[in-house]
Amino acid sequence: MFEAITDEEQRGQVGIGTLIVFIAMVLVAAIAAGVLINTAGFLQTQAEATGEESTSQVSDRLQVVSQSGNVTDVNGSQGVDEIDFVVAKAPGAGAIDLNQVSLEMIGANGQVAFQLDELSSSVDIFTDPENTDVVLTDSSDRAEINVDLDNSTVVDYGNMGSGEQLSVTFTTASGATTTTEIRVPTTLTKDQTSVRL
Hints:
This protein is an alpha+beta fold. Helix content is 26%, strand content 36%. It folds into 2 domains: 1-59; 61-196, Immunoglobulins (Immunoglobulin-like). Strands 1, 2, 6, 8, 9 and 12 form a 6-stranded antiparallel sheet that branches. A 4-stranded antiparallel sheet has the order 5-4-10-11, with no helix packed on it.
């Protein structure tokens, strides 16, 4: 049934052929495994970066603590010509550089958008009175942002009269937004110098 191979040359050739095929299969498997491992590592890195950016976009936002307006005479009646915002970083947010925050206002006088660093000295951190650092790093940090509505070089929105409304949106560098509504009271008197909005 089985034939004994007595020719030594035939026995060696069959063994070498099998060995070559086996080594080739191992090499192909190793290369394929390397490609899969590299691809998996790249996908993991990309997923981590996407997760971090998504978290920043949700959590790295400002929180408006208070908002008030300066009452002045506007065309014979009382109106608001400046708005003061007191802001803090929202819970869970990282450090927020106010120079990289943009502000958009939409109201009866139209739409205006600008960067806070364009307001120059109108942004102050309460914990840093010399205004050398406008980055909110701690949850207890508060910043005052003064917006002159009639500043023709930056804002150029115009004064707000009694009963007017304004929607203000702060957008941080990571893309997180905070929107607040401003409503000027319908009754303003000449005795008022400021009003809570």
